[in-house]
Every structure is written in C-alpha cells, then in structure tokens.
Amino acid sequence: MTDEQRHTDTGALAGIVVADFGRVLAGPYMTMLLADLGADVIKIERPGTGDDTRAWGPPFVDGEATYFLGVNRNKRSVALDLTEPHGREAARAIVARADVLVENFRPGTMEKLGLGYEELSALHPGLVYCSVTGFGTDGGAHLPGYDLLVQAMGGLMSVTGEPDGGGTKAGVALVDVITGLHAGMGVLAALRHRERTGRGQKVEVSLLGSLLSALTNQASAYVGAGVVPRAMGNRHPSIAPYEVFAAADRPLVLAVGNDRQFRTLCARLGLPGLADDPRFATNTGRVAHRDELVAVLSGPLRGRTADAWFEELTAAGVPCGPINDLAAAFGLADRLGLGARVPVAEGAAAETVASPIGLRGTPAAYRSAPPRLGEHTEALLAELGLAEPGPEAGEAPAT
After folding, report:
1. Are 111 and 99 in contact (CB under 8 A)?
2. SS3 for 282?
C-alpha cells in the first residue's frame, strides 16, 4: 500500500500512521480498532517468532492462531531486530513518519533501545506516544503485566464467581480489552489536542488503573462507602431479582431494574399480590429479602421453557434471556442484523469479529487479512529508502 493509497482512504482516521510495537492483546486490540477506522498500522515484530499470540493455539487457521487473527487485521507486518543497529534505524524511520506510536514493553525497554518518549518527541514534537503497562511506571514497573495477574491483584476475581469459591477469572482477557479501549480513547484525545496545538504528548495507560476504573459500582462501593464487595455468583449486590433462575429446560436470566418491571413480572408469573408485599415493593426491600424472593419466584419460572419466558416477558417489558453459548450468541446477532462477523479480507474464507463501532459516513473497513510475519518488510524498507539486512540472529529483549 503506497502513501497515496493510505491517504486517500475514506476511513475516519485516513492519513493517520501508527507505529505499533504492541504485542499480545491490549496494544494490538487498540491498534486494530484504529486500523478498522482507516489508520495505516505498521506492526513491528521480532524476526522468527513475531507477536507471541501467533503461537497461541489451537485453534489455528492456515497455520495462524485464531487468537492472533482476532486482533491484527488491516495491519502491515515488518520484522525488525531491535537489538541490532539496522533494526533500530528502520524503527526510527518508521516512527519519523508516524502520527502515533504504541508500545507495551516493560517500562524502560524502549528507552534502552533509543526509542523512548523523551528522545523521540524531541525529534518529532507532534508524535502521540502511547505506553501500556501492567502496573504503571513507578512502583509497579517491575511487575509483569499479564491479564490473569491483574484480574487477581486488581480485585476482579474477588467479586467474580460463587461465594467462598476462591476467586474466578473472567472467561476472556477482559482487562487487556478494557485497557485497549482506554488507550484508544487517550490516543484519539491526544490527536485532537494536536490538531489545535500542533504538539503531541505521551499517553500512559495501565492494566491495573483500567481495571479499577472499570469496576465502576463495585469500586465506588469501596471508595465511597468503605464497603469491600465480595463474590455473589450471578447475583447483583444492589438489584433484585437480577440473577439466574431455572426454567423448565435450561437457565434463564432475569434482570429486573425497577419497580414497574417487577410488578409486570409478578403479574406474568401469576403472583400479582407479590408486588404489594412490603418486603418486595421496592428494590431496597427486594435486595434485603433476596432469598425469600427467589424462593417465591423459582416455582412459577420452572413451569415453562426458557424460550417461552423470553418471548412473553420480553414482549411485556421485563428484561430476561437464556444463557447462550457463542454459537447461539452469534446466531442471535445474525438474526438481529448486527453483522457481527466479517471475512478477514475481501474474498477470504476465514472470518473475524466485526468492529462494533458504527459510523454511517465513514464505516469501518476490512481491507486486509492479518499479516504473515514480516510480510511487508521488504516493501516498507524500500519505501523508507533502507536496504533489507541479511539474516538476523538476535531478538528483541524479553518482556
């Protein structure tokens, strides 16, 4: 892809060039979102192995791990040995043309490579430099930023799972994803500031800080009222009924958010007087008497299938639904016309999950499949006026 092609793209971020030193999930997820919206993302990987997630399988499609495929479409891959002068020279040449740099090495690594913020911003004042860390750059700089560790140390596991269950992680690397979203918002804000001032800046986002922010009501209970939340299984600490019930055939979720919905639920279950019971008339009362409430509701709910309740209660304005596996969830999205999956590139058989960002005028585009390791090295180095070196034995520093 030439400079002219990149800058005539119709995406919302057309013309923005991103030097992507990110690996694994938080950084690559964020840069894929930018790429979907039109940015030219140059993914810089170490020769031989590349991004760790290239090997994180099964499952694999055509030799590539679906983990890697899920967060790296619309990018160009350049294999550079950053421990060698030629690799660092090429990296600096890429950054010189970039609007944004993204990295999630351990704190201090980019500085050792001559690619730190202070050095690069002095040469490129308009650069937006985004650093993603596990626990920040001060007291936590030595701690490894793995999602599971942050879920544990950051409190998420303490409020997830059954009571006295010892802590349960989320089913995906949720902290990485949340951090990627925060980092993307920070980068867009910095780009907007640059439009007004001409100056770039450093954007710093940590996994721990992102998680604590995303714990929202649970974190607010502690910070605001000194309450330390505990795991409650599928129950909500502040709302009832808001949990899983057994229907005739499979589990069903009820998410009753106000007194009007509760009154409607009682009428549909054949329990009209329950909404006037002083124990259950308000949400505060329902939370205080949750066990008694669940015992009363469970009997009628077992009398019909989950799908039957879903149809009736949803039509009546009571939020509910069955617990779907991913096949059923994507089937639901298909029926609703959400277009939740797209080919990795035009004409490709494999699919990836579509961007959820809907822009009517400048929609997300899926221009190219996730790249093979080093697929664009030769072309990009030629673009930069650099010759490709011979075989390189070194690798980037461990992170």
Report:
1. no
2. coil
What span, in angstroms and rounded, lies between the C-alpha atoms of 235 and 348?
A: 42
pLDDT in tens, the chain (399 residues): 444 344 446 799 999 999 999 999 999 999 999 999 999 999 999 999 999 999 999 999 888 899 999 999 999 999 999 999 999 999 999 999 999 999 999 999 999 999 999 999 999 999 999 999 999 988 878 888 899 999 999 999 999 999 988 899 999 999 999 999 999 999 999 999 999 999 999 999 999 999 999 999 999 999 999 999 999 999 999 999 999 999 999 999 999 999 999 999 999 999 989 999 999 999 999 999 999 999 999 999 999 999 999 999 999 999 999 999 999 999 999 999 999 988 766 666 678 899 999 999 999 988 888 999 999 999 999 988 887 665 543 344 433
Q: What is the DSSP string of 44-103?
A: EE-TTT-SGGGG--SSEETTEEHHHHTT-TTEEEEE--TTSHHHHHHHHHHHHH-SEEEE
- CA–CA gap between residue 320 and residue 306 (Å, rounded): 9
Residue 123's alpha-carbon distances to 92, 119, 293, in angstroms, are 10, 7, 65
242-246 and 75-79 strand pairing:
unpaired
- Distance, in Å, from the CA atom of 88 to the CA atom of 12, rounded to the nearest integer, reads 31
Give CA–CA dist 377/78, Å, rounded.
4
Q: Which residues, 6 or more positions from 229, have their beta carbon under 8 angstroms from its beta carbon? A: 158, 159, 218, 221, 222, 237
Task: Answer whether 254's CB lies under 8 Å from 316's CB.
Answer: no
Question: Which CA distances in Å does 286 have to 44, 244, 297?
Answer: 54, 16, 12
Q: How many whole angstroms separate alpha carbon 362 and alpha carbon 360?
A: 6
Active site residues: 176
Q: How many CB atoms lie within 10 A of CB 349?
A: 8
* Residue located via tokens 């990149």: 6
Question: DSSP letter at 238?
Answer: S
Token pair 């879903």 in the structure block, residue:
310
Bridge partners (DSSP) of residue 21 are 103
